[in-house]
Amino acid sequence: MTTDPDFAKLIAEGAAAPVDGWAFDWLAGRATEERPPWGYARLVTSRMAGADAALDVDTGGGEVLAEVPRPPRLLVATEGWPPNVAVARRTLAPLGATVVAVTPDAPLPFRDASFDLVVSRHPVRTDWPETARVLRRGGTFLSQQIGAGTVREVSEAILGPLPPPTQRHPDQAVAAARAAGLTVVDLREATLRTVFHDIGAVVWFLRKVVWTVPGFTVDRYRAELLALHHRIRAEGPFVAHARRFLIEAHR
Name one GO molecular function term (predicted). Predict the structure, then answer.
């Protein structure tokens, strides 16, 4: 479809780089994203210092949890994507954490009131009744979540115009938390500038963050990728916006 050697090289790089775990180090120098102002990792560290038994849901490769300097007596993490389970077990071994492989959308495999702290960064889906069930009375749920329409500009560059998002709105999370019997004590929102400097970074991102363009493959969307490559070359880095919100709730 194209003889542009630069396009072919960048596409090949983005398609070949590993996407296991939930770190984004491969994008260094190729893409950037602003960090939320609340400092999620710092908040988790603070909460963990006062916890007795803690659970990290959808831990990815355990990257955030690994930053905790003083883990609680009992530290457990769940992960539903098999390639990440082995990564998380290696990453979290120094903390003495147990990583449990789970089936997405299945109930949490823990007894009622097992934890006084549950945390989750960018969960695929928050099961609010299950979260409330495994929390002890007085326990805390702390989560940084992906907001509605995050990096929508990337999705539309590949798929074309999309209808307004109907999921992942913060008010929906608040309503679900309350319906599960939790009390929401903090809610914060942020819109974060996300910049892609080359098409290889876009390809890698779409392979990793699979819900941005469901069913993405390079071959399927080569024409759209080429158009975006030319746009970056002509106009400069491609700018999108990530939406995040922080929610804290008590039982």
Answer: S-adenosylmethionine-dependent methyltransferase activity
